[in-house]
Design a protein that fits this description.
This protein is of the alpha/beta class and 203 residues long. The chain folds into two domains: 5-16 and 86-199, Rossmann fold (3-Layer(aba) Sandwich); 23-79, no CATH class. 46% of the residues lie in helices and 15% in strands. It is built from ten helices and seven strands. The chain has a five-stranded parallel sheet with strand order 5-4-1-6-7. α9 links the parallel β6 (164-168) and β7 (183-186). α3 (56-66) runs antiparallel to α4 (71-79). The longest helix has 13 residues, at 90-102. The protein starts with a strand and ends with a helix.
Length: 203
């Protein structure tokens, strides 16, 4: 089938977001201490609960109660969240614009993002308004890689899985899309994405 729809992940693909921009050496006595913090306290699994709709206030207080010795680091995870946004991945944004200008595809965003924090990104980055639609995990109370989250986008915007292409930097999410019959690209860099799109005759 010919692709007529492109579904984009945002963080790591179109937006450069990374806690390392905040959590520099000033927060930790060693690299091992930093590793412990992200493995056992502010973990990816904890963060994904906020992506799926839990309040950042509730999530922060939960950890402060459990790990009072780490209170500053825990509070700054969301207290300095905007500092983790390093701006657009400009080469990918340029590629997105190039694809829009071909007028061959519909474009949708499918993102794991806490709802209130996503509003900040909407204010900051105009290109987030270029999409034909978007599905945000914090608003839907579910997230990637759960099939129901992908299905919500497919149903809401009448997207045929076999005519869609999904782009994400998380291989787990890519595999989940492929299980639904959606052709996918595991994003690693703007140059690699451009090459992959050219190989699929999309660009």
């Amino acid at each position: 089938m010919e692709i007529n729809t492109i579904i984009w992940d945002l963080g790591g693909v179109l937006i450069d977001w990374n806690p390392d921009y905040v959590f520099t050496e000033q927060y930790f006595k060693s690299a091992e201490e930093k590793d412990y913090f992200f493995r056992h306290i502010c973990t990816p699994a904890w963060n994904e609960e906020q992506d799926a709709g839990r309040s950042i206030v509730e999530a922060t207080q939960l950890l402060v109660n459990q790990f009072p010795d780490w209170e500053k680091q825990i509070r700054d995870y969301y207290g300095r969240w905007t500092d983790m946004l390093n701006g657009p991945v400009q080469d990918t944004v340029d590629l997105f614009r190039e694809l829009i200008d071909t007028d061959r595809y519909r474009h949708y965003a499918l993102t794991n993002w806490q709802a209130n924090l996503f509003d900040i990104a909407l204010v900051r980055y105009n290109f987030l308004h270029w999409f034909d639609g978007r599905v945000v995990s914090g608003e839907e109370k579910t997230r990637k890689p759960f099939p129901a989250f992908y299905q919500r986008l497919l149903d809401r915007y009448a997207v045929e899985p076999g005519k869609a292409l999904f782009i994400d930097d998380n291989l787990r999410n890519v595999k989940a899309a492929e299980e639904l019959g959606i052709t996918s690209i595991h994003f690693q860099s703007p140059a690699q994405l451009r090459t992959s799109l050219q190989e699929k005759n999309i660009l």
